[in-house]
Amino acid sequence: xxQRLNFxxxxxxxxxxxxxxxxxxGPRLLVKRDDQTGLAFGGNKTRKLEFLVAEAQAQGAQMxxxxxxxQSNHCRQTAAAAARxxxxxxxxxxxEMPTQPSANLLLDEMFGxxxxxxxxxxxxxxxxxxxYEKAVRDGKKPYLVPYGGSSPVGALGYAFAMExxxxxxxxxxxxxxxxxxxxxxxxxxxxxxxxGLTLGKRIxxxxxxxxxxxxxEDETWLKAHVSALASDASELLGERIEFTPDDVMATDAYxxxxxxxxxxxxxxxxxxxxxxxxxxxxxxxxxRAAAGLIDLIREGFFKKDETVLxxxxxxxxxxxxxxxxxxx
Length: 328
Ligand SMILES: *Cc1c(COP(=O)(O)O)cnc(C)c1O
Prior knowledge:
- This protein is about 40% helix and about 15% strand.
- The protein is an alpha/beta fold.
- α3 (about 75-85) packs parallel to α4 (about 105-110).
- Bound molecules: pyridoxal-5'-phosphate (PLP).
């Protein structure tokens, strides 16, 4: 039996983006507001944490340990969940520690976590493992929340998000309910969101396409990783479904600058969404994913009579990180 806590604000709204659609001259655009999932400014990690925190509780854990970049949204939400459910929390954060914390890092500190800083990302996995083992030795009963919350358990959050989307009937009244929205587009990185949606598509019968815009990983790795994660997650629901890399649609065409490096493409998408729809993206994830979406629209990748749903995965606190704010 899979356990789940219910603290996310669900269902998240679906909104139309008529001004942006018109400006781009492309397909009809919708947005699913998973930046509004609740839990410390929301984001896609809330849905995963409903399952991960339930598992931690079921195991009798007293502490959550996770890792990410200094401005990790996943770590901020994990820290908030730890505070809310009474866990101690240690975060292993890679990158240069600013003298004055801002944005997600400032929030992490507010939630009262302990931070272990790792200068070099290459050392992160080892330090995370050592931190975990030390906590075990000290009798702190830690639960290791995987990178990005992307274990099979965490991915379940997005399998059920797909059920939620289908039940919302986003295309009601458009005369085209079958397979609508025709496309779901979003930013993908550690793969849990992608894997959950892939599994949810199969289980709940969505017949549109799910296209992940890679934030930092290459396409071959993503397809293999996401399909394996979706297969493992399916098992938790009773019966294993074997997904293959061909079941996963992803592009790594928009992440060549590297993780968290702002280019004109991200700056443009953040400004277009803000100025045409009053909607905020984040510089690292949704800004990059939307830049990919905009480029694909301009290339004529989507048909004009199609409906494309941009799944907003959150991350806006990073807009206020000194590091990014200075470049927007
Ligand atoms: C973590 C994150 C993603 C990527 O989701 P994964 O499930 O790790 O692939 C996308 N957008 C935002 C804002 C995130 O914080």
